[in-house]
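Figure 2 data, in text form.
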Amino acid sequence: MTAARGPRFAASIAAAVLLLSPLPSSAWGREGHEIIGIIAAHYLTPAARGRIDALLGADRSGLTRNTGIASESTWADRYRDSDRRGGAIRYRRTREWHYVDIELAAPDLGMACFGRPRLAPGVPASKGPADDCIVDKVDEFSAELADPATTRAERLRALQFLLHFVGDLHQPLHCADDHDRGGNDRRVLSPARRAASLHQYWDTVLVEALGRSSGGVANRLIASISARQRRQWSSGAPADWAMQSFRIARSVAYGDLPAADGSGRYRLDRRYDAAAINAVRVQLQRAGVRLALLLNRALTPQAPR
């Protein structure tokens, strides 16, 4: 009797833990991802835009409004959490893919990426191992999207994950950790802004400081991107972009933190607030430009590599 119920009991405990645990933070939140999607759409070639619209038109998941790149950029978070109160299969399989925990004290991308596991032959990226990181998933999904031999269903999945993961890759606290779950365990108070965890502060609070309209913020950010910046940001690979996000986390998100007060909270001053807002502004711009770069490469014949 005991042996027969053991696995079920363990499964029940695991399910209970998932139910009681807080949902993981979604890098940039809905607004930030929409801003990145709008910026990327601005730089798409007509050929890439047409192929993207055709692929997204086949999405029947019902997880987003499915009105284009901006709304579909939130799909991966919704997919991850869609069965979290059921079997949690999607949650357990994909949750690690949204970040890479590069440790501040000993940065090692290979270790943070679980040793950089390779997909087994014939295994689609959407069915890859749960222990993998965002850097590898961006590479894998980019390759799938560009490969005409990829099934149409998998190409749609590759696109949906890419629309989200390129954004996640540019949130500094999705690429760094100081034994605090990427800032989730640190409570901050900032001038004229609500209390939040350090992670949430970078995810959503700072994005809201740029404006409440995703379209309005995106258009202002597009207008301030120079041709020179776009060329600079269109170089490198996902691993380079992750390390750039890590350096911002190390120098600004963590590096400029004041000492904690007696209650263990970090009271941020206006200097920290200003530096953080500026970093977020640039990271949203970089993410949009680089998302367009990957999509154009994958979906535009003879696009520059």
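Caption note: The first strand starts at residue 187 and ends at 190.
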